[in-house]
Amino acid sequence: MTVTETRAMAKAPLPATDPRPLGLIRHSYTLARRSIIKTIRTPEQLIDVTLQPLIFLVMFVYLLGGAVSGSTEAYLQHILPAIMVQTVIFAGMATGVNLNTDIAKGVFDRFRSLPIARSAPLLGSVAGDLIRYLVAIVSLLLFGTLMGFRVQTDPLSALLACVVTMVFAFSVSWIFVLFGMLMREPGGVQGVAFLTMFPLTFGTSMIAPKETLPGWLQAWVGVNPVSHVMDAARGLMVGGPVVAPVLWTLGWSVVFFAVFAPLAVRAYRRKA
Fold it and tell me: What global pTM score does this model have?
């Protein structure tokens, strides 16, 4: 923990006399600030949500745009919402990695000695990493606009697409948190997370329309939760079906959160 982070926590004392629900919220908020301060002071942690998605966007648009959609302009409208979803989902991977690193360095041992709710460090880290989702979405939309992307619905629908994407990514981030609690090294968290997320993000209609895929892959795309999020983002930003994809996305979000959040908290309490 850096001097700056320690001072930030000192400015917001964490009394043990707080009622449990209010204390948990207050403590989690304070530790979320710690996570945000750490990100601001080490901006290189944002490379994966700034430069990386832009490189993906340029590569896909100019290498595949003409072959898949007939023009790079049309392909940009098709793929940008999907890359936004992919980027925000992968951004949650840092939550598990950072938690694993903090536990390995003994940071959570220090938290244990403070008069704070036991789950506050975990909840604060997850909430603090929401800033990464915002950075990923804003940077990608700004760069996409420079390339020629245009929202073809309305600003409110585009905002809703971003919110739905963040809700789903937040629920998936608990999978990464669980990995962070179970793996021994940060590299192990990244490796398992990539192996899990690549079939989910690339086994979709992100790169090519579903109708052009082999039958077995179409079957997987049809049941893949990430496909529903991408369809919802496309429908809200460039037009298409909206209600069913959004409902599927929210349903999957509830399932992921209900299953993996309790498992992650249980694993955290055993380890921390």
Answer: 0.84
